[in-house]
Design goal:
2 copies of one chain form a homodimer.
Chain A lengths: L14 H12 L5 E8 L9 E2 L3 H9 L5 H9 L7 H6 L6 E4 L5 E2 L6 E6 H6 L1 H24 L4 E4 L8 H13 L4 E2 L4 H5 L9 H6 L3 H11 L5 E3 L5 H17 L6 E4 L4 H14 L6 E5 L4 H7 L6 E4 L1 H4 L9 E8 L2 E2 L14 E7 L5 E8 L7 E2 L2 E5 L2 E2 L6 H13 L3 H4 L10 E3 L1 H12 L11
Parallel strand pairs in A: 6-7, 6-11, 8-9, 9-10, 10-11, 15-19
Antiparallel strand pairs in A: 1-5, 1-12, 2-4, 3-5, 3-17, 12-13, 14-15, 14-16, 17-18
Helix pairs in contact in A: 2-6, 6-7, 6-13, 10-11, 11-12
Chain lengths: 455, 455
């Protein structure tokens, strides 16, 4: 077992999931359980989330099984009873999953995903489901902010090198693309997800040449249609002049410089100077790509400059202003009885829930109501079945279809939620009377659970 | 190709590495290049870094090759010349790596790692080397802060669910363990790295039972020596009383409760109350483990309470106060000529470098000097050969040996650097006259490079 096998290993979980499973099996507790995954609150300055990660969850759940090496480790670890590994060898996911489609705009206390399955199966999923949905939702939500303020300019994920490991880099490419980015520099996201990949050149390419203009010429010859030349290694405006100087000779050989990249300094001012140099030199079609410590605030500030494309890296893939969400996966019902955790500051809403979104006549979301699944309300229900008895109810949607859905969702957001600062008032998410009443009833019962027959 | 294959795929890289490779091959630029990986500055409130990730780097470099599916994608992508895939098919890493041992305390502008290899090979490594070293160094550096203020109390990584993807979770377990944590809840870190794994129970286990005491009893029976019972689902002190109530009956059957976990509320005050309840009930040996929104500041504040162990999750694995480092991998020499990037605010020190650490008589680090490799200085050189001609110079050190090295490093830190706030003065890292002189010479030469013969 090594790190490269880890994305699908059921041992990529908290040990307590396994200790609890042994406890559940020992006590014969295999009745149906309902868990829901939700975010308790928004980070400061954030007005909404964009649900993402469901496709990776379903792929994981479908393939869930312990292989021989994993079972052997469990048997020899000294942590478990003798029969436990044999029991795990039989474990498959046989339950149901309901979820919001990826790309859906959502809010705190709304279940993004619900798992209904025999307790050990539903319990075992917790860690990896959170690990996947938390991160992709985090990045999609961050990316959407840049998309909303970019004024239609092209946005590219440049973050792999400072993403937190391999999977973060790859999933950040997916999450930002589905939220409206135009592509990524992460090559593997091309073959893995069909995402457009973009590349320019690094400073090392320029530095490795004895002369900056020679570096530009080498690169342009290697990519006669697609070369984007990095011009800030020594002096940005002088770099632009060198591009203009070599352009006629290249054009005579059928080579068109696609554009230039700025990666340091006052990007707005430099973009204006560089645009003037390029235009005066006959390179009106050459684009200007900017990168270097960008985030959605910088993109907003630079949206009206001559910059055509933004490469956004570290701040996007680490969600630097809010590197995590308060995402949890909580037991809401077991063996037909609603359950409620009442820990200080961490109480949950019990029961199987649905979210209804009410819209204004123009389609703008006006209010969400969280209620019990059987309490049919006005509006559009946001959770839909995606897996039944361990099988997907439909093939995975194309990533571009998810991206189109996210685009519609973002387009219809009320203006105050599209802003980068806290919206006043925040989007209303209301708890329906039926749900509040159930929570009260559960609270009155001893120990936070209730026998439905006594309701 | 899918995400689960991604940790070793050479396509897990920025597209520009591949476009530059095509450019280098086209121009015949395969002379030796020297790249160094370093961090430009410390995040606010941080006084040092702990180098980590080298082992994953070496494993990646040793196995570096494009497989048939990857080459096919490159050939069909339309992004590259016809002969490029064939060239990549032959690519292996044939160069040298020098590095600081993992667990070494280090500072900005000090190379953590140097790669010397034919330019295309050294260039291609950039993205994944940064991705690995950046993240493990980030987490090891964060973890060391908690270790330094924990007063010897046990620290356990609880972060997988909110780590940024699978690899982040797994590598966070490794990086925090090498920095002095006692173990992790991430099960796979046991078989993958030999790290001690710890597990308790979740609220769902308690909630799934109709009665909290029944949940405790089920779990204690399943783990007659190791049960750590989560007591805050409904009321923490009442939970402790239930543990005391059931203990005699369990003890009569040879079952000892190992301890209790608190996960919410005022952890210090609750730990005192719970300790009193446990002691009065004859459970003096039962430990108290605390978790829930902990970081090094909370650990410091709680170090003198009756809490025995801390489970630290999200803040650790996302390095929440500083979710990234300004880590870069820069060309310092090509074809025997030192190179310097001079971009505004991002200038580099040219040439092949070494770091010398000068110590006081008691072993406390007093000053680091960054100089050229051949400029022998006082003190201990921090970079050592780890790979020559594509082969490791020695087998990988055991993780516990790395952890012991980190322990010695942290033990010898001057008190002002061990604090959680900015040290005054910061640790001195000086640029040696020989290096400053080379930088000046390079700057005077056109384009930021210099012909060594003219020096």
């Amino acid at each position: 077992m090594n790190a490269s096998a880890s994305t699908s290993s059921p041992l990529l979980t908290d040990l307590y999931q396994l200790t609890m499973l042994q406890g559940y099996y020992a006590a014969g507790m295999t009745a149906p359980a309902v868990f829901e995954l939700f975010v308790r609150k928004l980070p400061p300055g954030r007005n909404f989330l964009v649900a993402a990660g469901l496709e990776q969850v379903l792929a994981y759940v479908e393939r869930l099984r312990f292989d021989a090496a994993e079972l052997e480790w469990i048997g020899k670890s000294g942590l478990f009873d003798a029969g436990f590994a044999a029991r795990l060898a039989e474990l498959r996911f046989s339950g149901d999953v309901d979820a919001m489609p990826e790309g859906t705009v959502c809010f705190p206390n709304e279940p993004l995903l619900r798992v209904t399955a025999p307790l050990p199966e539903a319990q075992l999923l917790e860690t990896r489901l959170l690990n996947l949905v938390h991160y992709e939702t985090l990045v999609a939500s961050k990316a959407a902010r840049a998309v909303l303020v970019a004024g239609g300019k092209r946005l590219i994920d440049f973050g792999l090198r400072r993403a937190h490991g391999a999977e973060a880099g790859l999933l950040a490419a997916r999450a930002s693309y589905l939220a409206g980015f135009d592509g990524t520099a992460t090559t593997l996201a091309g073959p893995a997800f069909g995402i457009p990949v973009f590349g320019t050149m690094a400073h090392s390419f320029v530095q490795a040449h004895d002369d900056e203009a020679a570096a530009f010429e080498t690169f342009a010859r290697a990519f006669p249609r697609n070369a984007v030349l990095l011009i800030d290694t020594y002096d940005t405006v002088a770099g632009a002049r060198k591009v203009v100087d070599i352009a006629p000779r290249l054009q005579a050989q059928g080579i068109e410089v696609r554009g230039v990249r700025l990666d340091s300094g006052d990007l707005g001012a430099l973009a204006r100077e560089v645009r003037a140099v390029l235009d005066a030199g006959g390179l009106e079609k050459a684009i200007i790509l900017a990168s270097g410590n960008l985030d959605e605030h910088r993109v907003q500030a630079l949206a009206r400059t001559p910059i055509d494309s933004f490469g956004i890296g570290t701040s996007l893939v680490t969600s630097a202003d809010a590197p995590y969400l308060d995402a949890v996966y909580k037991l809401q019902e077991y063996a037909g009885k609603p359950r409620r955790k009442r820990s200080e500051g961490k109480a949950t809403w019990p029961g199987r829930k649905q979210v209804y979104r009410e819209r204004s006549s123009d389609g703008t979301p006006a209010r969400d109501v969280v209620t019990l699944e059987h309490d049919r309300r006005e509006g559009e229900p946001l959770l839909a079945p995606v897996m039944r008895a361990g099988r997907r109810v439909a093939p995975a949607p194309a990533l571009d279809a998810i991206r189109a859905h996210a685009h519609r969702e973002l387009e219809r957001l009320p203006p105050r939620l599209r802003a980068l600062a806290d919206a006043t008032p925040p989007y209303p998410v209301e708890i329906a009377p039926a749900l509040a009443a159930l929570a009260d009833t559960v609270d009155r019962a001893t120990g936070g659970i209730i026998d439905e027959e006594k309701q």
